Amino acid sequence: MFDPFLQELHTSIKAHGGKPASVPNGLELCVSQKGNSMIRSWLWNVPGFRRWRVTRLDAGKSLQVLNSVAYPDYNNDQPLMGIDLLWFGSRSKLVAVLDFQPLVQDQSYFERHFQGLKVLQSRFPELRSQETMRSFDPHLYFSPWLLFCRGGIDQAKGALPIAFNDFIKSYWDLQDLAIQRPSLIPSLEVRRLHIAYDIYSSRKDPAHGLFASYFGKSWADRFLKEFLFPDSYRDESSPLI
Ligand code: BLA
Question: Which CATH number belongs to the domain containing residue 171 in this structure?
Fold first, then answer.
């Protein structure tokens, strides 16, 4: 279901100078014991970003996932790029979340970084369902203009592919703008906020149980700790420099 999206994302990363980086040993690929589910992950070194991760889970009809987070360099306070697309084939259920994940929730930050996403969201009302979040707090690391949809095949095949491509493009546009103007949050504070994002996300992410059920608890623990949210497990007493 999400292979064309994955291809689009990787093509666009490469077009912006992205080079593959190594994923910790054993986490780049895992096949479930039953042999019917596979998870693959990629890390990219992209100019202007300190980390860009991508994960694709293929569990056939039961679940398809594309997940990605881009963390800009600390000297740039622009939002993180967050993608979480899930397709539950047997129920034909789509959960799609695309957001520029804000580091802070203040008005001037929104005005600086969210003109592009605002326009995008207004073009795709079908991806703007007024869903309530069950695990996450919508006012922490989510923007008021996120594309968030619990839908079905119509959204998955209709608006989503177009919105996805435009979303990626809009994030590059944001980066072009962000590097031309001064970053207003000092880089040490940006670093602290990135760490707080990883800590918050690792606590709230509803995916751990899912990984454990397909790939075992110890693999799932390692995947969260070493790949998805490595900053959430750093020694808090270690200096931030
Ligand atoms: C929801 N994401 C979910 C759910 C699962 C995952 C199983 C619950 C589905 C449901 O609500 O019906 C799965 N999350 C994953 C997977 C990974 C992961 C497989 O991190 C890792 C490979 N989640 C993100 C990012 C965003 C995000 C970057 O990882 C932001 C764009 C958002 N996921 C997000 C939101 C929900 C969700 C908002 C709904 C959760 C809620 O209702 O609070």
Answer: 3.40.1500.20
